[in-house]
Design a protein that fits this description.
heterodimer, A: about 220 residues, mainly beta, six-stranded mixed beta sheet, globular, B: 44 strands, leucine-rich repeat (chain A), LRR_dom_sf (chain A), LRR_R13L4/SHOC2-like (chain A)
Chain lengths: ~220, ~650
């Protein structure tokens, strides 16, 4: 359909409270717009996102969203919500986000590399979905990350070495995927139990530091 | 001679009968080209049967006395594919409506033969390419051309400017680019002109002002014009609706628009208009809707606007307007919607606001307003949206608003309101959100509360006191309950946790006492619990571990005792935990989820040993020995048994 496939002539006469599609220009609330983009790319049979109304001045009254006192989004709680569809790049704009809980759904597609921009992120819980693609190396920029749980998906590729630099990382779980290459053993990975890597048939085991070839057939 | 006359007759008869079968054949051809494999509602287009002109009885078809098709309506039939050129053979058709299908491809040039057309409507399809305006050259009777919502591109068609009867021209919702042609001013018969929702640019031609019959003009949305609103538009004296919203307009609103005596709707929102709102706009005697929102307008609301007796909707939000809200706003007899948020308005709301008994929506938030809330806001019992947040309002919420059963949203946060919240606010049938954060409200909550629509209740940071009423469980759809930063006392009522959808509860920073009700374990939707900074005691119920979606648990700064339930180690959803500054004891298992939290989650508990800490082991042992009576008892019995066995063994020897 066309550029303005929504019935703008109707909207013109119903402008009473709705200025829907151009809210990103009008509203200026980039966090609400980013989350609304997420809503549009998710399929939501249980209507958990029904309150996500982009015409509101900010998303702080939306359900499953928590803001701090400056009206910046700090938590997104969408675990166990029967959602499918895919994540969006725009999530990387939520600069104050600390907890991204989207576990136990049916989300597909890949992990947007823009999530590496979430400097304040403490918890990235995408476990038990249907996510594919690689673990973006940009996640190595998440210097406050404590929880990285990506288990129970269809992720491929290696575990990015960049994650070794996140000293705050306490819980890493990539089990039940199709990850290949080797398991990092330094930094935070010293304390991650081996069963948090299990059920990745192509995973070769802990890296052997000093030896030449790594991650063959794994890109 | 006679033979040739007969021949002529035969030819004539043949021609006429060919004409019949031609129209029938054309329709059958349309059906076969444009219908999809499954049912499309053209089942009755069946050529068999007794009638000599069966096509005249097809649904959507009307014929004249000569059995020629004059009207063809195939809308909403799930048609697909493209329109075959044979359509040009229906040269008697006056109404051709193919709207609301999935038709694609280009407009066949043969349509130029449809010289009888009065109404051509191909809206809501996926036609593409240029729109060949030349096909209309022969359509001298054409009154309506509607190609809205397709994928047409290229420049706006100019082949149609010589049409003398065209009243309705809808080119909107396509991908046309370039300028609006100046030559459109030649279509003097035009009453409705729409080209919004395209990719048009350049200046809006002032010559459109020559269209003296124009009643409706829609130019906005997705277009991006150069310059502003032509002042010449003030001479379009028949205009009833002018919509130039969201298309990059700059400059000022021309005062000449005030001449449009019949204008009912003026939509100029979402542009870059600046300067003051011209007082001459008070000449818009018929005006019902005024939307100037989301621009850079400055100055004050003109006092002359008191003449706008018919106005029902005023949208001025997100501008740089200032000054007071004039008193006449409260006297406008028909005002229903007043959205003026996000400006620098000062002084008070008109005391009369709402007395017209028609006000339904009020949003004056994010201004510098002072004074008290007008008491007659809901006099007509119609007030639905009541939003005044981020201002300096003082005084109480008028009691009258407690009887306003039509309320759906109350958002008054960040003001200096005081007094007791009227009890009726907690007994509203349609109210979905109550947000009164950061004011000086005092007094107690009513013991009778109900409301199936309420989803969010935020009373945080006020001075409300009394007990938390058990009746909270009557808010059957409540999802977020925020009572933090008040002076509530007494116990947390166990009834609260009967709420099936409760997702977030924050009772932090109050004077609550007693234990956490064990019923909390049945409140399975909970994702966030904050009970911090109270005087709660007892143990943390182990049932909390059955909350499968709990992400945040903060019980810090209370008097909790006993152990941290070890079941918490299995709560994979829990990513935020704070039990610091309590009187907890024992050793926290160094396993499962508990490993993820550092010592700050557990500090301030002298007898508690956090998971990572090895040095507090002895401290724990002695603490356990002194505080745990049962353990000490077992220790003594063990010593006694050892002594008895030793004695027995010795006696055997």
């Amino acid at each position: 359909m066309a550029a303005a496939s929504w019935p703008w002539t109707l909207s013109a006469s119903l402008t009473v409270t709705l200025t829907v599609t151009l809210v990103s220009v009008a509203n200026g609330n980039s966090e609400g717009d980013a989350l609304y983009t997420l809503r549009k790319s998710l399929s939501d049979p249980d209507n958990v996102l029904q309150s996500w109304d982009p015409t509101l001045v900010n998303p702080c009254t939306w359900f499953h969203i928590t803001c701090n006192q400056d009206n910046h989004v700090t938590r997104v709680d969408l675990g166990n919500s029967n959602l499918s569809g895919h994540l969006v790049r725009e999530l990387g704009k939520l600069e104050h986000l600390q907890y991204l809980e989207v576990y136990k759904n049916n989300i597909q597609g890949s992990i947007p590399s823009e999530l590496g921009n979430l400097r304040n992120l403490v918890s990235l819980d995408l476990y038990n979905n249907n996510i594919s693609g690689i673990i973006p190396t940009s996640l190595g920029k998440l210097k406050s990350l404590v929880f990285l749980r990506l288990n129970g998906n269809r992720l491929t590729g290696p575990i990015p070495r960049e994650l070794v630099g996140i000293s705050s990382l306490k819980v890493v779980d990539v089990s039940n995927n199709d990850i290949c290459g080797t398991i990092p053993t330094s930094g935070p990975f010293e304390h991650v139990p081996l069963n948090n890597f299990e059920n990745n048939p192509r995973l070769e085991g802990p890296e052997l530091l000093g030896l030449a070839s790594y991650d063959t057939n794994c890109s | 001679m006679r033979i040739s006359l007969q021949l002529l007759l035969v030819l004539l008869v043949f021609a006429i009968s060919s004409a019949y079968t031609s129209d029938l054949e054309v329709l059958l051809k349309l059906k076969s080209s444009m219908t999809s494999t499954w049912d499309s509602g053209l089942k009755d287009w069946d050529p068999s049967g007794e009638s000599t002109s069966p096509h005249c009885f097809f649904s959507g078809v009307a014929c004249d006395e000569d059995k020629r098709v004059v009207s063809l309506n195939m809308s909403f039939h799930n048609l697909s594919g493209s329109v075959p050129p044979e359509i040009g053979l229906l040269n008697k058709v006056e109404n051709l409506i193919l709207a609301a299908n999935n038709l694609t491809g280009r407009i066949p040039a043969e349509m130029a033969n449809l010289t009888s057309l009065k109404i051509l409507n191909i809206s809501n399809n996926m036609f593409m390419g240029n729109f060949p305006g030349e096909i209309t050259l022969g359509m001298t009777q054409l009154e309506v051309l509607d190609i809205y919502n397709n994928n047409f591109s290229g420049l706006l068609p100019t082949g149609l400017v010589n049409l003398k009867n065209l009243k309705h021209l809808h080119l909107g919702g396509n991908f046309f680019f370039g300028r609006i042609p100046e030559s459109y001013s030649k279509i003097q018969s035009l009453e409705y002109f729409a080209c919004g929702g395209n990719e048009l640019s350049g200046k809006i031609p002032a010559s459109l002002a020559y269209l003296k019959r124009l009643k409706y003009m829609y130019l906005g949305y997705f277009n991006s014009y150069e310059g502003g609103i032509p002042p010449e538009f003030g001479s379009l004296t028949s205009l009833e609706v002018l919509d130039i919203a969201s298309c990059n307009l700059s400059g000022e609103i021309p005062a000449s628009l005030g001449h449009l005596k019949h204008l009912r709707r003026l939509y100029l929102q979402m542009n870059s208009l600046l300067g003051a709102i011209p007082h001459e706009l008070s000449g818009l005697a018929s005006l019902e809707h005024l939307d100037l929102s989301v621009n850079q307008l400055s100055g004050e609301i003109p006092g002359s606007f008191s003449k706008l007796e018919n106005v029902t909707l005023i949208h001025l939000f997100k501008n740089n307007l200032s000054g007071p809200i004039p008193q006449f706003i409260g006297d406008l007899p028909n005002l229903q919607v007043l959205h003026i948020w996000g400006n620098n308005f000062t002084s008070e709301l008109p005391a009369n606001l709402g007395r017209n008994e028609k006000v339904t929506h009020l949003d004056a938030s994010s201004n510098c307003l002072t004074g008290s809330i007008p008491q007659d806001l809901c006099k007509g019992g119609k007030l639905s949206e009541f939003i005044l947040m981020n201002n300096f309002f003082s005084g109480p919420i008028p009691e009258e608003l407690g009887y306003c059963k039509s309320l759906t949203k109350i958002r008054l946060m960040n003001n200096t309101l005081n007094g007791t919240i009227p009890a009726g606010i907690f007994n509203m049938p349609a109210l979905t959100i109550i947000e009164l954060t950061n004011n000086n409200f005092s007094g107690e909550l009513p013991s009778n509360m109900s409301g199936n629509a309420l989803e969010r209740l935020d009373l945080s940071r006020n001075g409300i006191t009394g007990r938390i009423p058990p009746a909270f469980d009557n808010f059957l759809n409540l999802k977020n309950l925020l009572l933090d930063g008040n002076r509530f006392y007494g116990k947390i009522s166990e009834e609260i946790f009967r709420l099936k959808f409760l997702s977030g509860i924050n009772l932090s920073t109050n004077n609550l006492s007693g234990a956490i009700p064990t019923s909390i374990s049945s409140c399975t939707s909970l994702t966030s619990i904050d009970f911090s900074r109270n005087s709660l005691d007892g143990e943390i119920p182990s049932g909390i571990a059955s909350l499968k979606n709990l992400g945040m648990l903060d019980v810090s700064q209370n008097h909790f005792s006993g152990q941290v339930p070890s079941e918490i180690q299995y709560m994979s959803s829990l990513v935020e935990l704070d039990v610091s500054n309590n009187n907890l004891s024992g050793k926290i298992p160094a396993s499962g989820q508990l490993l993820a939290f550092d010592d700050s989650s557990f500090s301030g508990n002298p007898n508690l040993c956090p998971p990572h800490n090895m040095s507090c082991q002895s401290l724990v042992n002695s603490a356990q020995a002194s505080s745990s009576h049962g353990y000490k008892c077992w220790h003594s019995i063990r010593k006694l048994l050892v002594s008895i066995i030793t004695l027995c063994l010795l006696s055997i020897y």
